[in-house]
Amino acid sequence: MARDRDDITRASIGDSQRGRDTGTCVIPTQPTADSERISEPPPLPEDSQADLPPASSSSDLVPGHQTVVQNRRVTNRGGTLIKHLGNSRVPRPVNLRTVEGARSIDEGPRTPVGRYIVGPTLGTGGMGTVRLVRDQDIGRNVAMKTLNPADPDARALMRPLISEAQTTGQLEHPNIIPVYELGVLPDGDVFYTMKAMSGFGLKDVLKGLRRREPKFVKEYTERRLLSIFNQICQAMHYAHSRGVVHRDLKPDNVLLGSYGEVLVMDWGIAYVIGTSDDPLAQPGMVVGTPHYMAPEQARGQIAKLDGRTDIYSLGVILYEMLTLTTPIAEILATKDVPSDLDAHADMALEAVRGMREARRPVDNGRGGRVPDVLADIVTTAMAPRRKARFSTARQLLDRIDEYLEGSAERDRRTLMASSELAVGVQAIDRYRRMRESRARLGRDVALRSRSIHRWDPMSAKRELSDMATRHSHMELQVSQAFSTAVNHFHRVLGLVPDHPQGKAALANLYWQRFCEAESSMHFADMIYFADLVLKFNDPARGPVRAGNGQVTVRSFPEGAEIVLYDISRGLP
Question: Who has greater pLDDT, 87 or 19?
Answer without folding.
Answer: 87
